[in-house]
Amino acid sequence: MSQTLFDLHKAKLDAALNALRTRDYYSAYAESPSPRKYGETADKDGQAAFKAHLNRSFELDMPGITGEAGSEVSPYGFELGIKYPTVDIDILLPAMNEARKVWRDIGVQARTGICLEILKRINQHSFEIGYAVMHTSGQGFMMAFQAGGPHAQDRGLEAVAYGYDAMIHSPAAATWTKPQGKHDPLVMDKTFTVAGRGVALVIGCSTFPTWNTYPGLFASLVTGNPVVVKPHPAGILPAAISVKIAQDVLREQGLPPHIVSMVIDADPAQPCTKALAQRDEVKLIDFTGNTPFGDWLEHNCHQAQVYTEKAGVNTIIIDSTDNFKGMIQNLSFTLSLYSGQMCTTPQDIFIPAGGIETDQGHKSFDEVAEALSTGITRFLSDPERAGMVLGCIQAEVTDKRIDSARELGEKIGTVVRESDRPENPWFKEGRMRSPLLIAVDADKEDAYMEELFGPISFLVRTASTAHSIELAHKAVKNHGAITMGCYSTSDAVLEQIEEAALDAGVALSINLTAGVYVNQSAAFSDFHATGCNPAANASLSDLAYVANRFRIIQSRKHA
Amino acid sequence: MSQTLFDLHKAKLDAALNALRTRDYYSAYAESPSPRKYGETADKDGQAAFKAHLNRSFELDMPGITGEAGSEVSPYGFELGIKYPTVDIDILLPAMNEARKVWRDIGVQARTGICLEILKRINQHSFEIGYAVMHTSGQGFMMAFQAGGPHAQDRGLEAVAYGYDAMIHSPAAATWTKPQGKHDPLVMDKTFTVAGRGVALVIGCSTFPTWNTYPGLFASLVTGNPVVVKPHPAGILPAAISVKIAQDVLREQGLPPHIVSMVIDADPAQPCTKALAQRDEVKLIDFTGNTPFGDWLEHNCHQAQVYTEKAGVNTIIIDSTDNFKGMIQNLSFTLSLYSGQMCTTPQDIFIPAGGIETDQGHKSFDEVAEALSTGITRFLSDPERAGMVLGCIQAEVTDKRIDSARELGEKIGTVVRESDRPENPWFKEGRMRSPLLIAVDADKEDAYMEELFGPISFLVRTASTAHSIELAHKAVKNHGAITMGCYSTSDAVLEQIEEAALDAGVALSINLTAGVYVNQSAAFSDFHATGCNPAANASLSDLAYVANRFRIIQSRKHA
């Protein structure tokens, strides 16, 4: 039955495997929420399904359920009122560990087929999940649909494809024939069984509750590990819907549904994440979130392989441009998108004090700053577009950080653009903020070399582009980064920037002026994070992300 | 020039890549020390080269040399008298780190070609290295030549092939074309650069100074990391010769020779390994040795990815056999080989108290024990064969452990076979010991569930084969193991044993009665260690062993 699923989805898997190798554009799930792609009633049905979850108990199929909890609040201004099951991990984890055997024994193809079926069903729920992502993360609907739906599904498929490719790198069986000169050869029959490493824990974040959860979930699942998802307390619903879909597919296949489970804190004031992460059954951990907790996981969970994505300081180096307008438009969108709450949003923009050369002639530092400020304001002048692009501020603490950063900015530099509170056309209570821009001198490293999560960016006045490169390199090396962008018309300068990015280990985007943005990465082509600077110890996805999630156990005997 | 090396060795690389995928027999370097393979004077020349090293200073090309040290003693009874350079790691490591750029920039194929050339040259020094391994590890010459020479080289090639395969999984460049409906597509040019993670440290052991060093060395080197080898103080020469050969090849290619370096303790009483392992430049560590130090590395070197092979308790389950003679002969050789000083030698042999069924009729526990004791004694009755197979005891502490194990055995069980001190026909001072066999009841877990490194084995009297399986499973899970062997004529029993091996995560050898032994593993076909029990956190070699040693750094721009 599971084998049928593998055959059913084989073409999609092959296309994904091909995309990994070529890294050309590929997407398995339509990114447009158009009725032509998802059906005439998909939006209405998805919204209804989302609303049907509100103020009710959400059911999952797990041993050891003890009660229920949950206190999510939409950043758009209302309580979700959903209660999810709480579980006794002393019952759940041994049961999940027990399920390893059956999950191992169905084999590589059956597991892969099941993962692909789960992704297909998740895709069919893209609108429902999109609204769930919107009302937990605060993203605008279009972004919540795309990044939380098809783009996240693509990242999940990418992880499945990498995992499958790594698992079939060795054959399931082999005959070994060693010549012995004149004598008969030695002949051995061997089997090689892929075994997961244990129970896998995936710790989600509040801003991208599916996009940052699916890669770890599917990478661990396809390689033979039961997976327990621990969503962020503020973003449970998108994970819960995904887990429920996985459980449905597993049950239909005659497998224990709790091979994919979810644990939440019975009391958010007393998180169970540390206890969960140090359980002996847990051999794999994926985490997206703050640096102190990521570091704690890396340093204290010796029984597990730990994959982390943590804080960082993303940078842009502006040296010169032959398309000033395109650059400003590109950066205006980049800084506005989801109010800078992406782990890929640039925080520090380095500009020489003497200004830059452009196709519009020389521009002083202040003129560049002013153009960016105006560009953002103009871009956000349409309230509907502002509502869609900015979305809401996920957490109150981020909202407050904008105000404290403004105070700091006034003290140590100049506030180039105020972060105002636009009104959301559809949700009057939505917590909206526009980007704050602060100009500072390069010596104010204490301020701009620390991650200030949210729509807060520094325009840093440097002595020269060489100085900008030096500071950007330092930001990556010492504070981590997932993205670096640059603008220059000089090949020599670009070469220096490329070397800095390579040496520090960060993905570089060069002269983006059209419809590709430094904070966006495309599954199957762009590696999200490199794993070689403090912002992350792994990349989504590459071979290193999957190869350590399983082991090969061999047996041999004389033929 | 390096590209030429890649082309030169491409056929060998392709054969290795094919072997990894098929896991059929393959060996790139002749395992027979025959003049037809290595030349008429190879043995004499190799022995002369080995002797020329004695009582002299060994030169290596590294920045920061401060003096010299070294106090190796051959287990065959003489001092080597070789002095090796000591270095200031505050000078060496930054220089190695600096060399990362050039080592990265020459690219995947050039690095691969250089690694293959180093292996070819090492192969040409197989006799010299064989004698060096013999007179540090104490192995008999034939084993020192094979395991320390061609078999180690095969493991090195295996690591190179895996590393190469992992690196070319992503293309070096790609064009990404995303359709935009009626509009022009978005087109991006992308590059993907493989970058090593930093300086790699390889910590060698005294018993297999090349076999356990080459996989880590070549896996890290080919993937772009300069490598510093820290050999065991008792087994420096084989590593030093290998490092020198690597330096020669690097220098010829116009590269800094210290891309491969060696550090030894200026004072063996004050090892520098911990300091070295915690250096910020060091991002990869490979270690073979004792469990406490392996655990220390895993728990304290957070800046590095750590690969360890540690202690374990290997087991044999004897249930029944249709070839009693073959079983006894096979186990006699297995326990004798290198006096049980292999990380793959069985320590615990589980036999039901009620005896076993065989092709020679029922055999009681005592009859099986007696047959094994006699089998070993008969096998070692030829002094030259005994000298060749047993070799010498590498460390005095192992010698003493045999005596204390004998005392313990007498107290808690029965000494079935005494470990005597055969005289080596060629080296009268050689520290030789034959296998000690102790019969104990199954409840003496305190004794037999702890690794007693050396020629010490327990015949454990169990209630039944089911009990044997339970204990063997426990040994792997709680104490680690690299090998498990079993003998049974029952498919049902074999199925139970296979499930136990799979669940605990250990390689299983079934009914070995002919020329393949449980303690031997063949490169390109057998995975050495699984990485999923306490004996090792990695396998030599698989994708997981190489995929985490490099990162992919991308850049992108509009086409």
UniProtKB/TrEMBL annotation, chains A, B:
<dbReference type="InterPro" id="IPR050485">
    <property type="entry name" value="Proline_metab_enzyme"/>
</dbReference>
<dbReference type="InterPro" id="IPR016162">
    <property type="entry name" value="Ald_DH_N"/>
</dbReference>
<dbReference type="InterPro" id="IPR016163">
    <property type="entry name" value="Ald_DH_C"/>
</dbReference>
<protein>
    <submittedName>
        <fullName>Phenylacetic acid degradation protein paaN</fullName>
    </submittedName>
</protein>
<dbReference type="InterPro" id="IPR015590">
    <property type="entry name" value="Aldehyde_DH_dom"/>
</dbReference>
<dbReference type="GO" id="GO:0010133">
    <property type="term" value="P:L-proline catabolic process to L-glutamate"/>
</dbReference>
<dbReference type="GO" id="GO:0003842">
    <property type="term" value="F:L-glutamate gamma-semialdehyde dehydrogenase activity"/>
</dbReference>
<dbReference type="Pfam" id="PF00171">
    <property type="entry name" value="Aldedh"/>
</dbReference>
<dbReference type="InterPro" id="IPR011975">
    <property type="entry name" value="PaaN_2"/>
</dbReference>
<dbReference type="GO" id="GO:0009898">
    <property type="term" value="C:cytoplasmic side of plasma membrane"/>
</dbReference>
<keyword id="KW-0520">NAD</keyword>
<feature type="domain" description="Aldehyde dehydrogenase">
    <location>
        <begin position="88"/>
        <end position="474"/>
    </location>
</feature>
<keyword id="KW-0560">Oxidoreductase</keyword>
<dbReference type="InterPro" id="IPR016161">
    <property type="entry name" value="Ald_DH/histidinol_DH"/>
</dbReference>
